[in-house]
């Protein structure tokens, strides 16, 4: 994915350092910056259009959620999060759960890494087929009802998924340009994956 000139770029904690190191100027760098050195913190401060730091102990949110909340407050048409999955499963899960805040605010949000695109819906989503050949559907609420899939190898019609089931794992695109996922009630994770 390319960064467009109209995009507003927020770097959270060490993510801001990554941007700066790759000649991308953050519009906003924020966090407690406990994962960078003092010299790196100064480099971030000097290389960002705006810099906001907070106390590492006296805060109620992760740095990613602080950045996410700032993005939500701007009411954009879409939010894309990079670098928010990794070796810390607790942070990865918390960041996936942030998608619900975006859905509730009516804002399209995606998490993208080298192997996955992760989204959440409680209504209808049309996806362009892409080079992620597997599409998995997992409930993020106890139950998701009225799941109807078109454009998939294994379609569903008014199906129900309960949390703890693997029925929705590893579907594939049918021979189409676009596919649709419809949900009547509940929150459904959509994970497009590749090995």
UniProtKB/TrEMBL annotation:
What is the enzyme's class at the highest EC level?
transferase
Regions crossing the membrane:
none
Known EC number: 2.7.6.2
- The answer to whether the entry has keyword Nuclease is no
Gene3D superfamilies to which the protein is assigned, alphabetical = Thiamin pyrophosphokinase, catalytic domain
Annotated Gene Ontology MF terms?
Answer: thiamine diphosphokinase activity
Q: Could you confirm whether the keyword Kinase appears in this record?
A: yes
Query: Where does the Thiamin pyrophosphokinase thiamin-binding domain lie?
Result: 121-189
Keywords recorded for this protein, A-Z? ATP-binding, Kinase, Nucleotide-binding, Transferase
Q: What is this protein called?
A: Thiamine diphosphokinase
Native source organism of the sequence: Paenibacillus alvei
Question: Taxonomic classification, please?
Answer: Bacteria, Bacillati, Bacillota, Bacilli, Bacillales
